[in-house]
Amino acid sequence: MGSIGFIGAGSMAEAMVAGLLKGKVYKPEEVVVANRSNSARLEQLSKMYGIKTTHDKERLVKESSIIVLAMKPKDIQAGIDGIQELIENQLIVSVLAGISFETITNILGKQTAIVRAMPNTSAAIGKSATAIAASKDVTNEQIETCKSLFEAIGICKLVEENQLDAVTGLSGSGPAYIYYLVEAMEKAAIEVGLESAVARDLIVQTLLGASEMIAISEKHPSQLRKEVTSPNGTTEAGITILKERGFEDSLVTCIKRATERATELKVMFEDELITIEKK
Ligand SMILES: NC(=O)C1=CN([C@@H]2O[C@H](COP(=O)(O)OP(=O)(O)OC[C@H]3O[C@@H](n4cnc5c(N)ncnc54)[C@H](OP(=O)(O)O)[C@@H]3O)[C@@H](O)[C@H]2O)C=CC1
Ligand SMILES: O=C(O)[C@@H]1CCC=N1
């Protein structure tokens, strides 16, 4: 596949690098990561993974056949500045929430092959839930390349660009909802008298078991839930509280709001671009 370069050396870039190396999709010497100024971070990544690191984006672009944009949405203009002229046949893969093909193309100043991807940080252990969308300049072969890249670090679904904000709100942000749930379960476990290490193990196994049941069982999650819930038993007592306190509504509103926020990021950024152009 040639080499892969990441512009941005944060959580998402690291999760992808870790997963790609673990899955042996790339050798460490075929991976280069760049950031803006944080040399300590580059040193840490280079020590941990044996990959190449640089502040020199031009070098990264020249060395890579796939360039992953992995900076925050607000930093995309600065992140791309200086490399536009060097983009020729490389495939651009953007993991930025909310930022459209149109905006990336405008900043690049040329029509080129761009794939937008929305992975999640479980990429680090090969378990990302990723969706990708392809711009019209992307060939079928490039789509396949991209799919196999993300399938090496989890599952990958092909969607339309206008569905990516929903994917971001659902599975891009999704791991954080689960971590938050675990934090709350741990807090509760301690309050009902368990030791934190014991509670952690029980919670983790409960999540793993339930996830695997959902994945392999032919039963709907609502049926699986019913099977845990004895009439007048403990589960019913607990779930009654979740219903009374609006658990379902909270989660639905959470995912809708996160989806909406992805759309806002695009609008905010475009406003900023217009301001920059006017200056
Ligand atoms: N975190 C997540 O779970 C997910 C994130 N994403 C997307 O991934 C992207 C990155 O997120 P995340 O990894 O969390 O962010 P981080 O803040 O952890 O990392 C951002 C990185 O971008 C670098 N950067 C900023 N400006 C530039 C520049 N001009 N040139 C080169 N590098 C630059 C920063 O370098 P420096 O430190 O030197 O400033 C830093 O290494 C976001 O767009 C987000 O929407 C998508 C899916 C999931
Ligand atoms: O919170 C964010 O904006 C990014 C996108 C999805 C996960 N993290």
From TrEMBL:
It catalyses: L-proline + NAD(+) = (S)-1-pyrroline-5-carboxylate + NADH + 2 H(+); L-proline + NADP(+) = (S)-1-pyrroline-5-carboxylate + NADPH + 2 H(+). InterPro entries: 6-PGluconate_DH-like_C_sf (IPR008927), NAD(P)-bd_dom_sf (IPR036291), P5C_Rdtase_cat_N (IPR028939), P5CR-like_CS (IPR053790), P5CR_dimer (IPR029036), Pyrroline-COOH_reductase (IPR000304). Keywords: Amino-acid biosynthesis, Cytoplasm, NADP, Oxidoreductase, Proline biosynthesis. The keyword Lyase does not apply. One of its GO terms (cellular component) is cytoplasm. It is found in: Cytoplasm. NADP(+) binds at I7, G8, A9, G10, S11, M12, A70, M71, K72, P73. One of its GO terms (molecular function) is pyrroline-5-carboxylate reductase activity. Residues 161-265 form the Pyrroline-5-carboxylate reductase dimerisation domain. One of its GO terms (biological process) is L-proline biosynthetic process. It is an enzyme of class 1 (oxidoreductase). Pfam families: F420_oxidored, P5CR_dimer. Gene3D superfamilies: NAD(P)-binding Rossmann-like Domain, ProC C-terminal domain-like. Belongs to the pyrroline-5-carboxylate reductase family. Catalyzes the reduction of 1-pyrroline-5-carboxylate (PCA) to L-proline. This is Pyrroline-5-carboxylate reductase. It comes from Metabacillus litoralis.
